[in-house]
Amino acid sequence: MSSHTADTALTFLGKLILEGEIQCQTGLHIGAGKGSLEIGGADNPVVKDAFGIPYIPGSSLRGRLRSLLEQTLGLAVPSELIYLSKRKGQEVRIHQSDRPDDEICILFGRNPGRVERVSGEAVESPRATPARLTIYDAPLVVDSITPQMRENLDDELTEVKSENAVDRITSQANPRTLERVPSGARFRFRMVLDVLCEEDKPLLARLIEGLRLLEDDALGGGGSRGNGRVAFSGLSLAWRGKEYYAKGGAESSLLSGADLAALQQLASAEDFAAKLA
């Protein structure tokens, strides 16, 4: 956990800007939650913008990172979870604690008010704390869908994967189709980490841990069936201190064209905090 305490004072120091590309290693399906089906369309379409171009919602990427970090830190247990929704069949349980050094709550924010824990305990949540991490929607790099790829796609930018669930007793088939962004597609992502105190500076290392976990996990739906394997590349990291915003000062480029290993090495260096001045 972090070195934050209940007496840690928050005062804006600057922002870390992390940008790069997400490359699909296998087909990616992030569902649109569409209420109706188009004739001849896939049963499960992917989310698209107003121009019909697939993208990765910042909420999907942020939620997956949070979930993976909660699991790896041992926080996905009843005593650490609260209900966001208790609607039957649509329960939403996430981690939230009142510990000032809880990096998950520092990174992703903490909501105030009375909450109910999964363990059955009703507790009063502490004061709200601002989320340090912002993740924006990641647009598709349209040119990453090459002409050769388009010749084999079911749509201009996506493919349709057919799947079949077979009843173990009757052997009756239950076919379904899944729209996916194809392997090889790339998305441009942008993440901003607010540094509100000296104790926030090591949080970048925790974010990188989440990104590395995601590379060996899955993004979107159907991960256990082969969908959603991604890789991060072409990473750049910049520091924009108070002077950048107050007086138009220059940003400090900390890394460019790197992979996650190089980024992690930078964040774990002893002099990293000194670079954020």
Annotation keywords:
single chain, 277 residues, alpha+beta, five-stranded antiparallel beta sheet, two-stranded antiparallel sheet, 7 helices
Secondary structure layout:
Elements (H helix, E strand, L loop, with lengths): L13 E11 L30 E2 L1 H15 L8 E5 L6 E4 L7 H6 L4 E4 L5 E4 L7 E3 L2 E2 L7 H4 L8 E8 L6 E8 L5 E10 L7 H13 L14 E12 H6 L4 E7 L1 H9 L3 H4 L2
Antiparallel strand pairs: 1-11, 1-12, 2-8, 3-4, 5-6, 7-11, 9-10, 12-13
Helix pairs in contact: 1-4, 4-6
From the N-terminal CA to the C-terminal CA, the straight-line distance is 23 Å
How many discrete domains?
1
What is the H/E string? EEHEEHEEEEHEEEHEHEHH
Q: Give me the secondary-structure category.
A: alpha+beta
Number of strands: 13
Order of strands, main sheet, comes to 7-11-1-12-13
**Tally the helices: what do you get?**
7
Rg estimate, integer Å:
21 Å
Oligomerization status of the protein chains = single chain
Overall outline: globular
Mean pLDDT: 90
User: Which regions have little confidence, pLDDT < 50, spanning 5+ residues?
Assistant: 35-41
The percent range for strand residues is 25-35%
Largest sheet: 5 strands, antiparallel
Helix content: 10-25%
